[in-house]
Specification:
Layout lengths: L3 H4 L6 E2 L8 E3 L1 H7 L6 E9 L2 E6 L2 E3 L12 E9 L2 E7 L2 E2 L11 H7 L5 H7 L2 H11 L5 H7 L8 H9 L5 H6 L8 H14 L3 H26 L3 E7 L7 E7 L11 E9 L3 E9 L4 E8 L2 H9 L1 H9 L4 E8 L22
Parallel strand pairs: 13-14
Antiparallel strand pairs: 1-8, 2-7, 3-4, 3-6, 4-5, 6-7, 9-10, 10-11, 11-12, 12-13
Helix pairs in contact: 4-10, 9-10
Length: 353
C-alpha cells in the first residue's frame, strides 16, 4: 500500500538563501505597468541579456544588484510592499528542489505506477453492479457488502453532496486521511484491498488479477494528482460507482494560477457506457465567471438527438445553480482518442476542443 511517506517521494524543497539582498524600489509608473498591488507576490527570472544578468519581471528587464548572486534560470519571488516612500519589491524565499539522494529515489513500484498508462475501463468494468454481485458471490464475501453500500451511489438520487463524498472516499486521499486520524469510513482502495485478501486466501487467480489491476490504476491516479499538485495544478481522476447504473469515470483538472490572467478554467471530463445509451463522453469547461461550455460525444444517433432536445432543460437547471451555459455541442461520434506516445511524461498535449 502506498503510504503518505511514499506518495511524497520528492525531496522537500530548500529555500533560496536571500539574506542580505536589498529590495527593489519601483516608481508608480513601473508599478502600474507591471500591474502590481500591495502584498502581491510576483515571480522574477534571472536571464543573461548581452552578457549581463538581468532580472525579468513580466517580460520587463530590471537592473538588480542581487542578480549577480544567481545564475540564469533561477527564479526569485518578491512581495510588493507599499509605504509613504512608495512601492518596493522585497525578496521572499521561494522553493528550489534539492538533489535527490539514491536513498530517496523512487522505488521500481512507484516508477511503474508513474509511467503506467491510465486503464480506466479496468476499474469501471469491475465496479459494474452485475460484475460486483458476481464477484462477491464467487468469493463468499458477504461481510464486504455493507462497506460497499457506503461507497456506491444511486443514479436516481444523485446530488452534489453525494459526488463530493464519492471523491473523498474514492481512494485518492485514503492515506492522507488516515495519517490525520480524520478518516470517517472505508474508501474504495481499502475496500478493494480487503476483497483482494479474500481472493488470495481462496486462490481465485482471475479475481486476484482483476483486483490488483484496479488497485494499480487507482494508485497511479494518486501519483498523477500529487504530480499535478507539485506543479501548482489540480487533477483528480476517480470512478463514481452506482447501485442502479454502470459507473462513471470522472476527471477534474485545473491549471496553475496565472498572475496575468488570474484563475485558470476548470475542465471536467465524464465517461460512461451502458446497454441503454452506449458510450457517452462529456467535456465541460467552467470559466471563473461561472459560465460553461460543453461538448458531448454519443456513439448512437438517437442518444445524440435526445441530448440536443434536452439542451433547454439543461440550461434552465444550470441557472438554478448560478451557472450560465454559453455553448453546448453534441456530436454523434466517438470521442477522438489520444496517441499514447503523446501522453508520456515530458509531452504537452492541447486538450482544447
Amino acid at each position: 500500500m502506498l503510504g503518505p511517506e511514499q506518495l511524497n517521494f520528492v525531496a522537500k524543497p530548500n529555500p533560496i538563501f536571500l539574506e542580505g539582498l536589498v529590495a527593489i524600489r519601483v516608481s508608480e509608473q513601473m508599478a502600474k505597468d507591471l500591474g502590481l498591488r500591495d502584498n502581491q507576490v510576483i515571480r522574477g527570472v534571472i536571464e543573461n541579456r548581452g552578457d549581463l544578468l538581468k532580472l525579468i519581471l513580466n517580460n520587463r528587464e530590471i537592473d538588480w544588484p542581487g542578480s549577480k548572486r544567481f545564475k540564469p534560470g533561477d527564479r526569485i519571488d518578491f512581495r510588493v510592499e507599499g509605504s509613504v516612500y512608495g512601492r518596493s519589491l522585497k525578496p521572499v524565499p521561494s522553493a528550489q528542489p534539492s538533489p535527490v539522494s539514491p536513498s530517496m529515489a523512487p522505488s521500481a513500484r512507484l516508477l511503474s505506477l508513474i509511467y503506467r498508462p491510465d486503464q480506466a475501463m479496468v476499474t469501471a468494468q469491475l465496479l459494474q453492479p452485475a460484475s460486483l454481485s458476481g464477484l462477491l458471490t464467487q468469493l463468499a464475501a458477504s461481510d464486504q457488502t455493507q462497506q460497499l453500500s457506503q461507497l456506491m451511489q444511486s443514479m436516481g438520487r444523485l446530488s452534489p453532496e453525494m459526488i463530493k463524498n464519492a471523491l473523498v472516499h474514492s481512494g485518492l486521499f485514503g492515506e492522507f486521511l488516515l495519517s490525520g486520524q480524520s478518516h470517517t469510513g472505508p474508501d474504495l482502495k481499502q475496500w478493494l484491498r480487503g476483497l483482494l485478501r479474500f481472493a488470495m486466501a481462496q486462490s481465485q487467480t482471475q479475481a486476484v488479477v482483476e483486483l490488483e489491476a484496479a488497485i494499480d490504476n487507482l494508485e497511479s491516479r494518486q501519483l498523477d494528482s500529487l504530480q499535478a499538485q507539485l506543479n501548482r495544478e489540480l487533477s483528480y481522476s476517480f470512478t463514481l460507482p452506482f447501485v442502479d447504473a454502470n459507473p462513471v469515470e470522472v476527471q477534474f483538472e485545473r491549471g496553475p494560477y496565472d498572475s496575468e490572467h488570474g484563475e485558470a478554467d476548470w475542465v471536467i471530463n465524464l465517461h460512461t457506457e451502458s446497454q441503454e445509451l452506449g458510450q457517452l463522453w462529456l467535456k465541460t469547461t467552467l470559466r471563473p465567471d461561472n459560465s460553461l461550455e460543453m461538448i458531448m460525444w454519443a456513439e448512437r444517433a438517437a442518444v445524440a438527438q435526445l441530448a440536443r432536445t434536452a439542451t433547454s432543460e439543461l440550461e434552465y437547471e444550470l441557472q438554478s445553480f448560478g451557472l450560465q451555459l454559453n455553448k453546448i455541442t453534441v456530436l454523434n461520434a466517438t470521442r477522438p482518442g489520444l496517441d499514447p506516445a503523446l501522453s508520456s511524461p515530458g509531452h504537452v498535449v492541447d486538450v482544447r476542443t
